[in-house]
Design brief:
alpha/beta; 12 helices; Rossmann fold; single chain; Rna Polymerase Sigma Factor, Chain: A; binds L-homoserine; 385 residues; 2 domains; binds acetyl coenzyme *A
């Protein structure tokens, strides 16, 4: 967490009609702005966050906006806006919001399903309220890239360029399967109670779901390098608490040692086990289970051709939709990404008429877009210059 949280603003709409036809009453969008609108109200850069991110883009993408001449996005030049997606626990309407007209109860699992397109429509409303006339660029990675793609369909007069990172034109079967594995993991926890868990949430289920998500975000090689078969010496994972220094560099290798000589009667834990358990714990501290399931369902619904060019075959419809996106586009893929593999970004770059493709080298897989801020900044900088 940053030392000082930036000011988060809120816009509320009395009745927001979703793509499904359901209505969210008092629909709220939390957003953060850095920089100022220029006189033409057209220097806006819209940042779209990923699955578990918040509107606080400087928290998770700090290197792109550090306010110096080396950062790709200079807040002296751009007015940078990031809105929190519907269903996320970071301020916009979601399962953890109270139901209007019912001051005490939370929506919980009754919060209506929302789509990427719902987010884009409600976020445009926020920009309209701010008087934004056009957008210099919209940027997103992973789920954020899904939003950026949908944003671009407002047309080149409104969205003048786009950056798509580690994302896809439609959620494919592999990514849906990972999401399903996580939903099933959560639902296997008896505390889930169909989402009506109130003050006793399914921490074991959500934690285990985050563990498997982490496997989809990282790689064999990165775990090999970071953890190997190292074990943590005098503590088991039950003793590891957030804030403890359990970095693998400070852990000790037990390989070759007689376990019977171990001072503790607890089984030594593989560093990688401890890491995953810590990630599970960290996630439980910042996320809500109903919100998580909501967001998984939302990314599964993502399909740029849904309801468009229905008279054409899937392939032709995809070609036609992408051809519509005439703006200059920068498409970035991570060669080690096992969740949204490079082939999906290459297909985007091929289908978008005015796209440039870059590979972001990372050993970490999908999470490379968050972990390789410096390299990503170098790729983005020329695009914004
Ligand atoms: C207010 C908010 O929180 S806003 C939302 C913030 N989150 C987002 O924006 C979502 C996107 N972010 C993410 O997915 C992640 O934070 C990432 C990908 C950016 C980085 O993940 P991290 O977990 O920080 O990085 P990494 O994989 O290197 O793990 C480092 C952590 O694991 C701990 N760790 C490392 N090895 C071990 C081990 N063997 N055992 C236990 N813990 C370990 C480190 O001490 C460190 O702990 P810390 O997070 O308390 O400092
Ligand atoms: N680490 C990212 C991965 C999803 O793109 C997140 O938690 O949002």
């Amino acid at each position: 967490m940053p030392d000082k949280l930036p000011t988060q603003f809120y816009t509320t709409i009395d009745e927001f009609v979703l793509e499904s036809g359901e209505i969210i009453f008092d629909a709220t969008v939390a957003f953060i702005i850095k920089g100022r609108l220029d006189i033409l109200r057209s220097n806006v850069v819209v940042i779209c966050h990923a699955l578990s991110g918040s509107a606080d883009f400087e928290d998770w993408w700090s290197l792109l906006f550090s306010g110096n001449e080396k950062a790709a996005l200079d807040p002296e030049r751009f007015c940078i806006i990031c809105c929190n997606c519907l269903g996320s626990p970071y301020g916009s309407s979601s399962p953890v919001s109270s139901k209007p007209g019912d001051g005490t109860a939370f929506y919980g699992p009754s919060f209506p399903k929302t789509t990427i397109r719902d987010d884009v429509r409600i976020q445009k409303y926020v920009l309209d309220q701010l008087g934004v006339r056009s957008i210099h660029s919209v940027i997103g990675a992973s789920m954020g890239g899904m939003l950026a793609l949908e944003w671009s369909l407002f047309g080149e007069d409104y969205v003048r360029s786009l950056v798509l990172i580690a994302t896809t034109a439609r959620q494919g079967p592999w990514a849906i399967a990972w999401a399903e594995n996580q939903r099933a993991t959560i639902k296997a926890d008896a505390k889930y109670r169909e989402g009506f868990y109130t003050d006793d949430p399914p921490v074991a289920g959500l934690g285990a779901a985050r563990m498997s998500a982490m496997l989809s975000y990282r790689t064999h090689k990165s775990f090999d390098k970071r953890f190997g078969r190292r074990r943590l010496l005098a503590r088991s994972v039950e003793d590891v608490r957030p804030g403890d220094n359990v970095n693998p560099c400070t852990s000790m290798s037990l390989e070759g040692m007689s376990l019977s000589g171990h001072r503790s009667n607890k089984q030594p834990t593989f560093a990688v086990q401890s890491y995953l358990r810590y990630q599970a714990e960290k996630f439980n501290e910042r996320f809500d289970t109903n919100c998580y399931i909501h967001l998984l369902d939302k990314i599964d619904s993502h399909d740029i051709i849904r309801g468009r060019y229905e008279n054409l075959s899937d392939g032709d419809a995809m070609e036609a939709v992408l051809r519509q996106i005439q703006q200059p586009a920068l498409v970035v893929g991570i060669p080690t990404d096992g969740l949204y593999p490079l082939s999906e970004q290459l297909a985007l770059a091929k289908g978008l008429p005015n796209a440039t493709f870059y590979a972001l080298e990372s050993e970490d897989g999908h999470d490379g877009f968050l972990l390789e801020g410096k390299k990503l900044n170098c790729i983005l900088k020329p695009f914004f210059n």
